[in-house]
Design a protein that fits this description.
Elements: H1 2-20, H2 22-28, E1 34-38, E2 41-46, H3 49-71, E3 76-81, H4 91-107, H5 141-152, E4 161-164, H6 171-184, E5 191-195, H7 196-209, H8 212-220, E6 224-228, H9 237-252, E7 256-261, H10 273-279, E8 283-286, H11 292-305, H12 312-321, H13 326-342, H14 349-380, H15 384-388, H16 394-410, H17 415-421, H18 427-442, E9 446-451, E10 454-459, H19 460-472
Parallel strand pairs: 2-3, 4-7, 4-8, 5-6, 6-7
Antiparallel strand pairs: 1-2, 9-10
Amino acid sequence: MSLQKSDVEGRIRGRLAELVGNQKYKVWFHNSTHFAMADGFLKVGVPNIFVGNWIETHFAEAISNAAREIVGKELEISYAIEPRLFTQIRKAQLNSQADFVTKLAERGVREMPGAAIDNQIAPKPRLRGKLGDFVVGPGSELAHSIAQRVIENPGHSYNPVFFHGGSGIGKTHLLQGIANALEDQGRGLRWRYVSGESFTNEFLLSLKNGTLEPFRRRYRELDALLIDDVHFLANKRATQDEFLHTFNTIFSIGKQIVLASDAHPKMIGQLSESLVSRFVSGIVVKIDPPDATTRCEILRRRAALMGRQVPADVLAYVSEKIVSNVRELEGALLKLVAAADVIHSPISLAVARQSLDDHLARTVQILTVNDIEQVVTAYFGLTPADLHSSRKSRTVALARNIAMYLARKDTPLSFPEIARVMGNKNHTTVLLAHRKIRRQLEEDARVAWLAAAGEQTAPLREIVAKIEEQIRR
């Protein structure tokens, strides 16, 4: 049975390489993903949150199509962090990922299907998130309540709305839930849900093709605009100017704007003051990681969807080990189900401990470093791929050094462990970065970096304090 599954998974990979092309497959899938099938699910293991988000955003449809063609039916795709994968990635591949992200942004080539370049509204995408499926907890109760009010009275109850928080805790789910609810109302409301990256790529494409006016009508005549990952606009002056005019037009006629980001608006580096002031003019809500009770309920509902009974003590065990990321909770459950199936055993606490202990222990640490990387890169207008690469520009080097310093200061990881997590670097790199930042803090030094608006300088102590405050919120 395992050989058959392995063969099927290999064939899915082969078909995926054909669909996305060998170059993209080597950059994003070779050595950095693990495919496993269980109970109608295809689990895609990824080395960290950044790679998982990128693959889900850009290649979800290709993965789904490849799986359907090989298996002959639809499989639900789930993404889970598997820290061991990071040790398999070579520096050349990490550099390629960073180059890929940068070149895509510079070219403005839209990788996702449905890039409309005329005045026609592109077909509405099939969105997964539904508000009724959202598990509400203390950390998300306010955000969920505001989402409901937006649906009931778009443009008037709360406007604009800005959700922020770490990856995998529900921001995208809420935005998609709002979009789906507006569509289900049957009121003929014109809405559009896109990522900051998609908005940027559409704008640059329309600029290149001389179709700016259709692009502007497409966005400025909406009843509701929902932008996910709005921090992607950082360091893109032309796109920020365009989005500012779009924001002002929609807001001035009383239409709804909902935004989401990994960071608070004031913590998104290289974002214009005009946009920041617009973002904070409405209601800004942080979504916190789910508490233990909420995590158990998320696991229980997910297990029910899979048609599996999971004992309460197992749910409690997994929810105790994974505290910050819903996606990783679901990935751990899938791994547990697959492990039980392989040994033909009911799901039990003993099976959970045997199959998940190493995975859970390493993932908790990885997630902590990921949290630091997300805030640091948002502040400097970079991506985690930049930090993991071998790039040594002034901005990347400063951001990388700060991230390494905070990883050593605020996590239990050793210098070699931090080096492994942040791009398989030499542990002396982390040691020197830690010493440099610590010395500069002691000297109350100012640091300089290059932003879209030119060279920026600020006291390092202020930068580190802002980043730590955001991490701990």
